[in-house]
Amino acid sequence: MVKSKLKEFNKICRDIKDIKIQGARNIAKKALYAYNLIPTKASMKKLKTLRPTEPMLMNVLHRAEEGEKYENLLIHFDVAQKNINESVYEKIENGDVIMTHCHSTNVTHALIYSWKKGKRFEVYNTETRPLFQGHKTARELSNAKIPVTTFVDSAMGIMMSKEQGTKHVTKILVGADALLKEGVVNKVGSEAIAQIAKNERIPFYVVADSWKYSPKEVRLEMRNFHEVWEKMPSKFHIKVKNPAFELIKKKWISGIFTDLGFMRYKTFLKEMKK
Ligand code: RUB
Q1: Strand 261-263 and strand 183-187: pairing?
Q2: Quick one: which atom of ligand 1 is closest to the CA of 19?
Q3: Residue 23, ligand 1, Cβ within 6 A
Q4: Which of 34, 88, 114, 129 has the lowest tally of Cβ within 10 angstroms?
Q5: Assign residue 131 a region: left if phi > 0, alpha if psi is -120 to 50, beta otherwise?
Q6: Is residue 101 within 6 Å of ligand 1 at its C-beta?
Q7: CA–CA separation, 268 vs 18, rounded Å?
Q8: Ligand 1 center to residue 252 CA distance, Å?
Q9: Shortest-distance atom of ligand 1 to CA 207
Q10: How far apart are CA 156 and CA 160, in angstroms?
Q11: Which parts of 104-155 fold into alpha helices (H)?
Q12: How many angstroms separate the CA atoms of 73 and 61, rounded?
């Protein structure tokens, strides 16, 4: 029994480290589950090293360490998502063309909820190289019968304007890894999207659990270049950069949907300071 728990614990750690478990919410939830399997100081230490740039992971582990019950912590994920779903539903209008980037559970769940509750819209999404999390987004939404069109990442300009047969995007919803004083950290490409959105006068919204807030700075994760160029011939000495995330400065953000409701980003930061 203990051996099988250890095996499961180690597998979760490997999967988080290898990005097989991805997205801030999934990582935090799975790490919490792993800690509940083996609630020792050593396992806490190990879990904290897996993705130190994810505040939600750190926040839930810290709460567990402080003695908050596993069941109560788990409830937070669902209650937060329920509140997010309601406020996203309120904002979506029939006929919207909603753009999203990467894969965010907070975003896909809110879109699926809104669709099931009767809102009719379509989604444009990026494929999100190099790991193609956009495929996961497209599959989830399509399974829920939401019309989806996937674009190559570099078509983000075309995606947002009315060119080459595309419709004009009416809203952008992206998830978040970290909610910081200066802005929001999310998948690389997010700030470029936010800047184009500003030019095109498209509202750019962030959808995220408030437990992604961090009062401290967060280092941005640089990932392995093999994700980008798997078998580079050894005769080449080409540097490859693979930044996974970037900061979207708060001036580009039109508003944020969290478990506290919909508000301007500045207001959200004030709430977090209370
Ligand atoms: C995932 C990503 C997601 C956020 C939010 O990047 O940038 O938008 O983590 O996700 P990666 P969620 O796949 O490289 O971890 O809403 O699921 O917490």
Answers
A1: unpaired
A2: 15
A3: yes
A4: 129
A5: alpha
A6: no
A7: 32
A8: 19
A9: 16
A10: 6
A11: 105-116, 133-143
A12: 10
| pLDDT value for 146 | 98
Query: Would you kindly state where each structural domain of the chain is located, as residue ranges?
Result: 2-68, 86-273
Ligand 1 proximity of 140 Cβ (cutoff 6 Å): no
Q: Measured from the CB, is residue 171 less than 6 Å from ligand 1?
A: no
According to CATH, the topology of domain 86-273 is Rossmann fold (3.40.50)
- Phi/psi of residue 47, each to 5°? -60, -35
CB 36 less than 6 A from any atom of ligand 1: no
Residue 3 pLDDT level (bands cut at 50, 70, 90): confident
Q: What is the pLDDT of residue 1?
A: 52
Amino acid found at 154 = S
Is the beta carbon of 244 within 6 A of some atom in ligand 1?
A: yes
Which carries the bigger pLDDT value, residue 42 or residue 164? 42
Residue nearest to atom 12 of ligand 1 (CA): 104
Give dist(CA 230, CA 249) in Å, integer. 32
- Please tell me if the CB atom of residue 177 comes closer than 6 angstroms to any atom of ligand 1: yes
pLDDT tens-digit profile of 189-237?
999 999 999 999 999 999 999 999 999 999 999 999 999 999 999 999 9
Over residues 29-45, the pLDDT tens digits come to 999 999 999 999 999 99
